[in-house]
Amino acid sequence: MKKDIHPKYDLKTKATCACGAVFVVGSTVPEIKIEICSQCHPFYTGNEKIMDTAGRVERFKKRANATTKAKAKK
Questions:
Q1: What pLDDT, in 10s, does the model give residues 19-33?
Q2: Using CA atoms, how far apart are residues 61 and 42, in angstroms rounded to an integer?
Q3: How far apart are CA 57 and CA 39, in angstroms?
Q4: Residue 41 placed within a domain
């Protein structure tokens, strides 16, 4: 490896989530700000957090309910 061309890797970088959680990780940047972490992500918490854009969620739920009702009739 060539010397003096690689960024400095710091093992004590502070990653701050929008929910307020703080993690210490390794990175080449001194501070990281993230929008979602394992403490607030719906997959890990079990809470449904939906960002609805132009009614897409309602259309999906409507289609999903229609298919389950069609299967129940069979």
A1: 899 999 999 999 999
A2: 18
A3: 24
A4: yes
d(CA 74, CA 63): 17
In-domain check, residue 4: no
**Which residues make Cβ contacts (< 8 Å) with residue 9, sequence separation at least 6?**
26, 27, 28
3-state DSSP call for residue 10? strand
Locate 17 and state its tokens.
Answer: 């989530």
**How many domains, the chain?**
1
Rounded to whole angstroms, the Cα distance separating 21 from 35 reads 10
Helix (H/G/I), strand (E/B), else coil: 31? strand
* pTM (2 d.p.): 0.52
